[in-house]
Structures are given as C-alpha cells and as structure tokens.
Prior knowledge:
Blueprint: H1 7-11, E1 20-22, H2 30-39, E2 42-44, H3 59-76, H4 79-83, H5 89-105
Parallel strand pairs: 1-2
Amino acid sequence: MGDAPQAADLLCPLLAPARQVLADTAYDSDAIRVLIAEIGAVAVIPPRPNRLVPPHLDPLTYRDRNQVERLMNRLKQFRRVATRYDKLADSYAAFVQLRAIMLWLN
C-alpha cells in the first residue's frame, strides 16, 4: 500500500516551523498538499504524471532534496548508523555526527 497514507500523521507534529516541505513524487496527493498549505508551508513535490493540472515545482529547491538524500545514503554506508546498534539516542547521534565529520574531512 505504501507509506503515503501515513504521511499526514507523521508530518503533523513536524510541520509547525517549516517553510517548505520537500518530498518525492509518491507523496503527491491533494490531502498532503492541503495539510502542508494549512501549516503555511510550500509543498515542493513533483507532480505525478497522471495529474491533469500539475502544480508548480521549483526545480532548484527540489534539487536540494536530492543532495539531502545522497548525504543520508553516505551516512548509512557506516554500518553502525544504518543498523542502529546503539540503545541510547545520544550514542546514536554521536556516531551520526562522527560519520558526518568523516565525510566532511574526505
């Protein structure tokens, strides 16, 4: 069924300070766009090909989403971050920061 039907429940507590919400084409639904508009943010979601009237998409802002996605992929190449062996959130956050420093230094 996918994760788009649960997206509204997951986004509600996170959207308060957001100015823009970047997402993949899978999240292009009227319900999610209305939720984002009610918060006062701009939805940067590419439209699905079957939309009759596709909404505007800022390609430069959407490109930022790709950069974040590639960074997450590089972080997950560090096995300890990908599998989350740590029991405490602080330990996990420390290893994410360590991996980010290693990527930055390379």
